[in-house]
Specification:
By secondary structure, the chain is mainly α. The chain has a domain at 32-98. Helices cover 54% and strands 6% of the residues. The protein has a 3-stranded antiparallel sheet, with no helix packed on it. A hairpin with a 3-residue loop joins strand 2 (92-93) and strand 3. The structure holds zinc ion (ZN).
């Protein structure tokens, strides 16, 4: 009887461990997806600023770009820092890497 209880306990721990690993993996994926969305929002604001300012290339004025985002420059949910690219260049997150979404030029 005692052996059976120990076996059930070990199985329960294994199942809980697998569930925790699955949950953490999904959480990391969700954060990466959110981060990509943040970088796309920045890109959209950059393009809007470029049209209004009449810019076709070069660096962007991030203070001016942030005016096109309701809550300012978004932050990475994992605490990464964004490197804002110039016009026609994507953003880069210090945790999640470069923006994957391709925008028309
Ligand atoms: Zn990030």
């Amino acid at each position: 009887m005692k052996k059976r209880v120990i076996t059930v306990g070990i199985v329960a721990l294994l199942v809980a461990g697998c569930a925790a690993v699955f949950y953490l993996k999904r959480l990391a994926e969700a954060r990466a997806t959110y981060c990509e969305g943040c970088m796309c929002c920045i890109e959209s604001a950059k393009q809007t600023w470029a049209i209004v300012a009449g810019k076709t290339n070069g660096p962007v004025d991030i203070d001016e770009v942030s005016k096109y985002l309701k809550r300012g420059i978004p932050e990475c949910p994992s605490g990464g820092k964004y490197t804002i690219g110039g016009i026609g260049e994507g953003q880069r997150c210090s945790v999640h890497g470069p923006m994957r979404t391709q925008w028309p030029k």
